[in-house]
Write a structure and sequence with these properties.
The chain is of the alpha/beta class. It has one domain (14-296): Rossmann fold. It is built from 14 helices and 8 strands. The longest helix is centred in the last third of the chain and has 19 residues, at 211-229. It binds adenosine-5'-triphosphate (ATP) and magnesium ion.
Length: 297
């Protein structure tokens, strides 16, 4: 008799629902900061732009938010925020400064910790951050006084990236609709689970041309997760491909502040509202708008 693989037989009800079980209902109600790692398998899918804009959007809506650039070697969130802090994560890694001392406050009130760019003062920090000091570094980062802390991670499934992602309450795996990106997103999710990650894993499809394309892309990764790793991936939402993103990058300003009404900004508001719990956001009209839009996903 042919043996049927357990994973194929798995019914939706028997899937692992770590995403729902572990997800905080509303980050605003937690005392400790909620940590959100933004990661991807394939590079260049928009992680840094999304981390900067989601963090800015949540900060704008009244939750103290921090963003830590954890892309060791190729850190560039400072460019997107037009910030040039003299102190960065390297000072925390080498023990010369406390994490609050390296927090740069943007004009919008976002706390930003610049990363370690290759060849600078933090050269070698990548290897140091993966050694025994890693848990201590993560604890320091988590101790930033904020309600939400974003980690802008590097691409890939190297140990450094995976360690940071595994330390977060929520992992946003970013993909584009490209088949290669979808496959790499699946590989990232699989790696996280193999590493024992038991937080909330959510897929964010970026640079889509339509809602239909977003649905299809999400469906491909969801089906692979169900079939091969028996995992029920949560849907974080999508962001439309929008030329305002590049324009804002050129102006070194988050697109949610430079072009608040562009389609990418509206998509980011919805994802941010869902991450933070729509009730924590805005007041009156703005709140009910976000609640309505968030419920449409
Ligand atoms: N929704 C979008 N619409 C149009 N362009 C976008 C969108 N999101 C990101 N981009 C563009 O994609 C490029 C890569 O973005 P970004 O640097 O944020 O990616 P990344 O995943 O952080 O890259 P890396 O893996 O190198 O860290 C940038 O040129 C950015 O302007
Ligand atoms: Mg990046």
């Amino acid at each position: 008799m042919t043996r049927v693989r357990n994973t194929i037989m798995a019914k939706p009800s028997s899937l692992r629902h770590r995403s729902e079980r572990a997800a905080p209902t509303s980050v605003g109600t937690k005392k400790a900061a909620t940590t959100i790692a933004v990661t991807s398998g394939k590079g260049g899918v928009g992680k840094s732009n999304l981390a900067v804009n989601l963090a800015t959007c949540i900060q704008q809506n009244g939750l103290q938010t921090a963003l830590v650039d954890l892309d060791m070697g190729l850190a560039n969130a400072d460019v997107l925020l037009n910030a040039a802090p003299l102190r960065n994560l390297a000072h925390v890694i080498n023990g010369s400064m406390d994490v609050e001392q390296v927090c740069h406050l943007t004009t919008g009130g976002l706390k930003f910790v610049a990363g370690v760019a290759g060849g600078g003062a933090g050269a070698g920090a990548e290897s140091r951050s993966t050694d025994r000091a890693f848990p201590e570094l993560v604890e320091r980062i988590k101790s930033i006084s904020a309600e939400v802390i974003f980690f802008d991670c590097a691409a890939g499934i190297g140990p450094n990236v995976t360690q940071f992602a595994c330390a977060a309450d929520v992992v946003l795996v970013v993909t584009t609709p490209e088949p290669t990106s979808l496959v790499d997103a699946y590989a990232t999710i699989k790696t996280l689970l193999n590493e024992g990650y038991d937080g909330s894993v959510r897929l964010l499809v970026n640079m889509v041309e339509s809602r239909g394309e977003a649905r299809k892309s999400f469906g491909r990764v969801r089906d692979a997760c169900e079939k091969f790793i028996n995992f029920d991936i949560a849907n974080a939402g999508y962001v439309l491909h929008d030329t305002h993103v590049e324009l804002a990058v050129r102006h070194r300003e988050p697109f949610v502040t430079r072009y608040p009404k562009c389609s990418a900004s509206l998509c980011v508001s919805v994802i941010a509202a869902r991450l933070a719990g729509a009730r924590s956001f805005g007041s009156g009209e703005q709140r009910s708008f976000l609640q309505r839009v968030a419920s449409m996903f």
